[in-house]
From TrEMBL:
It comes from the Eukaryota. It holds the Pfam family DHDPS. This is Dihydrodipicolinate synthase. It comes from Clohesyomyces aquaticus. InterPro entries: Aldolase_TIM, DapA-like.
Length: 328
């Protein structure tokens, strides 16, 4: 029996499909760990040139809970300037607005709109919370379902189906890794009604095959070109090549699953010197969290190194039309 399709109208503004990097926050290599806005600017442009279809700031990978309200606004202004200077002023910038209360999340939503964000993403898990925030947000809202940081609370298919009917809730990021949940949603909603994104690149190919439209992956901080390439190959109909690259990406991403400290170390090790950011402390987590120890550093290099050859073989993005079809 055919699955009944939703009759809700298409949303006015949807998150463009593709691979999005949840960008790490970089600090000055000093005890006080102020935000290094120059480094953030440089890293942002590196990710865009690397072919990422959009960037996510101030989420779990961005250590949002450790940033002040003013620091968050400073970062957003910096990255909006970075993409504008690169020639893609309309490049998609998604910003986390999860707060400790509904009021705080609404306040953060207003800040992000004023500072230049394109979309807002929240990781709380109650239907009423999402509805209240979406009602007040000037930006379209993406639901961030991440049971690992919400004491195991997991939005199920029925929850997401109900939230999808809100005119200002446009997509979900499934960091729960539940491909079956994604299939249930894509069987009922078109991408124009409610889009489904995987929460990492190690199951991007299955997400696309199931009707999803992309993913958000911490590994893109280290290998932006290779992670985006899976999506690009799939869209071009080169599925065998996409599947082959998916195998390598999935193995490299295993290190990111272990901890944020390893993701940041990997970025520093493989990318830092390319960007003139040679001090490893720039990539340390913010205190009180600790950087990776020597044993895990060595393991991370071994695990991530499988993707170096593929990453180096992919050319950087050239601008004219812009990134992701936007800009000049």
């Amino acid at each position: 029996m055919p699955i009944s399709k939703s009759s809700i109208p298409a949303k006015a503004k949807m998150l463009p499909p593709g691979v999005y990097c949840p960008v790490i926050t970089l600090y000055r290599p000093a005890k006080t760990q102020e935000i290094d806005l120059e480094a953030m600017y440089t890293h942002c442009q590196y990710l865009v040139r690397g072919g990422q279809h959009g960037l996510v700031y101030q989420g779990t990978n961005g250590e949002a809970i450790l940033l002040s309200r003013e620091e968050k606004k400073d970062i957003l202004r910096t990255v909006r300037k970075a993409v504008t200077d690169l020639g893609v002023p309309d490049y998609p910038i998604v910003v986390g607005i999860s707060g400790q209360s509904t009021n705080e999340s609404i306040e953060l939503a207003r800040d992000t709109a004023e500072a230049g964000a394109s979309f807002a993403v929240s990781e709380e898990v109650l239907r009423g919370f999402y509805t209240d925030v979406a009602d007040e947000s000037r930006l379209p809202v993406v639901v961030y379902n991440f049971p690992g940081v919400t004491s195991g609370i997991d939005l199920n298919s029925d929850d997401l189906r109900a939230l999808a009917s809100h005119p200002n809730i446009v997509a979900v990021k499934l960091t729960c890794g539940n491909v079956g949940k994604g299939v249930r949603l894509t069987s009922q909603f078109s991408p124009e009604q409610f889009s489904v994104y995987g929460g990492s690149s190690d199951f991007l190919f299955p997400t696309l095959e199931a009707g999803g439209v992309g993913c958000v992956t911490g590994l893109a901080n280290v290998f932006p070109k290779a992670t985006a390439r899976i999506y690009d190959l799939w869209v071009d109909g080169k599925k065998a090549e996409a599947r082959q690259l998916q195998d390598v990406v999935a193995n490299a991403e295993w290190a990111c699953k272990k901890s944020l400290a390893l993701t940041k170390f990997g970025a520093g090790y493989f990318v830092g010197k390319k960007l003139g950011l040679g001090d490893e402390k720039t990539f340390w987590p913010r205190r009180p969290y600790l950087p990776a120890n020597e044993v895990m550093k060595k393991w991370t290099v071994e695990v991530m190194s499988v993707l170096v050859e593929e990453e180096d073989a992919i050319p950087e993005k050239r601008f004219g039309k812009g990134a992701n079809g936007v800009g000049k």
